[in-house]
């Protein structure tokens, strides 16, 4: 479907990533310039395959680049275990009538790719796609997938402009990505376009309460004007056309999402308030059939 020969008439071996990443220490991949100057990649456990066409040009204002600390944090055990794995386990639990496998799974905002092997393991897709706007993160994602022996297509693109056909994906995974996006409504419209009828959106997000906290403001960088409460995220998803069953919604109150980092509860036994403004939202939304 995505033929490099049709796009350029030839294939060129290059380092994984755009020209500015040519010296990065990652395994060799393949690059296809099939739309303007925008790259796309294909990594599959050492095998060669076709690539996804590169995305349309996007404005830099669509993405707020993370701080150096934020990029470092994505490599830590805290992120892998307490953030990513906890969210993924919760989302899997929320899936209505879960299937043994999902044909095409897309990780929107795949970052450094730690989620890719986990998605392959949990959903057994015949095709796994990772999308991210940051080419440095894509280079890391490619290396992560190759090390795990997982086949994945990687596309440098905005979440609101993905180079995928209509009705292509069975499942979209969007974990801790939305609070980085400026064009949130446009991204949801794109998710609906890319999903098949009846397809699932696994959505895990930090709310305004958490993103506006002092520690996050000090260490990370986000577009603060677009942050939303949990009810506002739910309303936006439903207004976009998604069906969000109440049984597929979760509000975890994990220690790292609290202003005191859970110290009061862990050290002094102070229980969190039952009535509070939620800091995290996990849900499974469905595109109507």
Automatic annotation (TrEMBL):
Residues 106-203 form the Methyltransferase type domain. Keywords: Methyltransferase, S-adenosyl-L-methionine, Transferase. Gene3D superfamilies: Vaccinia Virus protein VP39 (3.40.50.150). GO terms for biological process: methylation. GO terms for molecular function: S-adenosylmethionine-dependent methyltransferase activity. The keyword Transferase applies. InterPro entries: Methyltransf_11, Methyltransf_Superfamily, SAM-dependent_MTases_sf, UbiE/COQ5_MeTrFase_CS. It comes from the Bacteria. It holds the Pfam family Methyltransf_11. This is Class I SAM-dependent methyltransferase. The lineage of its organism: Bacteria, Pseudomonadati, Pseudomonadota, Betaproteobacteria, Burkholderiales.
């Amino acid at each position: 479907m995505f033929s490099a020969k049709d796009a350029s008439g030839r294939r060129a071996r290059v380092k994984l990533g755009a020209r500015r990443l040519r010296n990065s220490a990652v395994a060799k991949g393949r690059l296809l310039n099939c739309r303007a100057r925008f790259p796309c990649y294909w990594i599959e456990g050492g095998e060669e395959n076709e690539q996804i066409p590169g995305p349309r040009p996007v404005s830099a204002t669509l993405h707020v680049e993370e701080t150096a600390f934020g990029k470092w944090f994505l490599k830590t055990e805290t992120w892998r275990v307490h953030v990513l794995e906890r969210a993924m386990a919760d989302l899997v639990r929320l899936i209505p009538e879960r299937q043994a496998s999902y044909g095409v799974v897309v990780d929107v905002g795949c970052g450094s790719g730690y989620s890719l092997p986990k998605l392959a393991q949990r959903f057994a897709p015949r095709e796994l796609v990772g999308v991210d706007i940051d080419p440095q993160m894509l280079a890391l994602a490619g290396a992560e997938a190759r090390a795990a022996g997982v086949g994945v297509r990687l596309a440098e693109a905005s979440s609101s402009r993905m180079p995928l056909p209509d009705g292509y994906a069975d499942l979209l995974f969007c974990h801790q990505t939305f609070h980085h996006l400026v064009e949130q409504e446009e991204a949801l419209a794109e998710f609906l376009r890319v999903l098949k009828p009846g397809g699932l959106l696994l959505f895990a997000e930090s709310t305004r309460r958490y993103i506006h906290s002092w520690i996050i403001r000090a260490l990370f960088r986000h577009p603060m004007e677009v942050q939303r409460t949990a009810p506002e995220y739910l309303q936006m998803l439903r207004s976009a056309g998604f069906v969000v069953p109440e049984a597929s919604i979760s509000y975890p109150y994990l220690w790292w999402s609290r202003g005191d980092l859970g110290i009061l509860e862990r050290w002094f036994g102070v229980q969190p308030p039952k009535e509070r403004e939620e800091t995290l939202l996990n849900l499974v939304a469905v595109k109507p059939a």
